């Protein structure tokens, strides 16, 4: 009897407190909050729910459940349906601190999964436990590899593409960190959409069936521990708002700002996207940082290449620094192109006996140069590579990396890292490398392969 009386008293005090706060709130704000409360009640908040026999689902309207190809396994207060979809698959939602997103057994050309970002979350880490999509292709000769058929993207609030590379190919074992703007109120919290767009498989498309399993971890901002957080956790458990997975403590650390990938172990390995055991191709137009956690006794880091093949400037002889990304001027490129074009024209004239026609169209080498210049400029506007330019600007940035006792460089291309035992960085600053690729690929060599590199922290001899 005493316990029942105490519970009623607590509820009464809570209700009175809410009433007082509500009464002291300006009328417009009360109406707005009332409308939003009603909206969330009507919508069910798209929160996780439990149905019959412990079946899990998301709380949505019955019509939306039908659109998601789901099955109602219970009711959600007040008018929602506890909708069970294929386990953590297309059309699903999650507001848990840890969730999984798997490919559907039934092929779908578009597959979305939504993450309702929790309060006090600063980053989301996505681990690609399994990730196999169609390989990137080159839309035209000389263009960089791109995801034309299958692609994985991230959207915020359904319509804004997030600043993360579009991915395809083989990426099992990779991960990415997604920065989140932490919000303080429920109504401002973000929703992240993980989106797969796939090409239907038929007799004309020989790529294997795509599949994936992604682990999504919401990482809270670093805050000073207080008793309030303990009270909040206890309250969540009492109210059964915290799932079994939420109770587990995540092992992942927050990444430094600006890092797409972050490795917290003292040693390990990392590789380019779609490395695919050395059989894949990296994508064009990438520019991202890979970071490593330094400990109190860390004074540097060592890199040893298992495989390293990045496009290089075929017109230069070295494979570090400016020789990796020095672009030729327009006049140089057009002169080379004009010379090549003149030689081709001469050969065609001899074989086809069309000297007079060729002479009319190409009156002189100056005219040829002018035409090629126009073609070059048009290509630049359309983001196409210059004619036969043979110029790359891809590289891996290892800031002031020593590849011998006396030689160091910051940009590496071709197979240079395979030629040396290791590259070391000695610094008291952040530990990172960065990968940069352009929108051009070789027309004569298969050199856009990527890398796999072992790393280990250094704590002595610096």
TrEMBL record:
It holds the Pfam family CUB_animal. Coiled coil: none annotated. Residues 256-456 form the CUB domain. Residues 1-23 form the signal peptide. Gene3D superfamilies: Spermadhesin, CUB domain. Keywords: Signal. The keyword Signal applies. PANTHER family: CUB DOMAIN-CONTAINING PROTEIN-RELATED, INTRAFLAGELLAR TRANSPORT PROTEIN 122 FAMILY PROTEIN-RELATED. This is CUB domain. It comes from Cinara cedri.
